[in-house]
């Protein structure tokens, strides 16, 4: 007899699904689309690190927000920050979300798209698979 399998949630996919409620369906993913300029605003979520112990995954995710203007990108980045840190955390499988690096403008090479990036630490316990 084997023990039940418990896994940590895929934090990238969990956060993408949640942020589609702010950016709109099809406007958030784990990869930047090739037609980015036509899909603005857009939110990209990428896990960039973290660690886990026996109970909790402490994932670090980078969230990039893309929009056509500074005003639009800054507003959506701040809405995302406020939404993720709560209170309470909005995502049922995440116990806590903390800001490691606040949203700030970052370069994006094409000159027509503005980008804000932020880094968050997420905390999620194992779930039965």
Structure commentary:
The chain has 129 residues and is α+β, with helices and mostly antiparallel strands. 22% of the residues lie in helices and 40% in strands. The chain has helices at residues 11-23, 70-85, and strands at 6-7, 28-29, 42-52, 56-67, 96-106, 114-125, 127-128. The strands form two sheets. A five-stranded mixed β-sheet has the order 2-3-4-6-5. Strands 1-7 form a two-stranded antiparallel sheet. 27% of the residues are buried. The mean pLDDT is 92.
Describe this protein with a few key phrases:
single chain, 129 residues, alpha+beta, STM4215-like, five-stranded mixed sheet, two-stranded antiparallel sheet, 2 helices, 7 strands
């Amino acid at each position: 007899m084997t023990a039940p399998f418990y896994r940590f949630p895929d934090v990238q996919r969990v956060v993408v699904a949640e942020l589609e409620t702010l950016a709109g369906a099809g406007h958030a993913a784990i990869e930047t689309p090739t037609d980015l300029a036509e899909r603005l605003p857009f939110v990209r979520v990428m896990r960039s690190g973290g660690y886990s112990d026996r109970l909790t995954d402490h994932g670090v995710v980078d969230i990039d927000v893309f929009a056509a203007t500074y005003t639009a990108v800054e507003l959506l980045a701040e809405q995302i920050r406020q939404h993720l840190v709560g209170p309470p955390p909005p995502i049922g499988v995440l116990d806590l979300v903390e800001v490691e690096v606040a949203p700030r403008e970052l370069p994006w090479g094409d000159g027509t798209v503005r980008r804000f990036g932020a880094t968050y630490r997420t905390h999620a316990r194992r779930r039965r698979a």
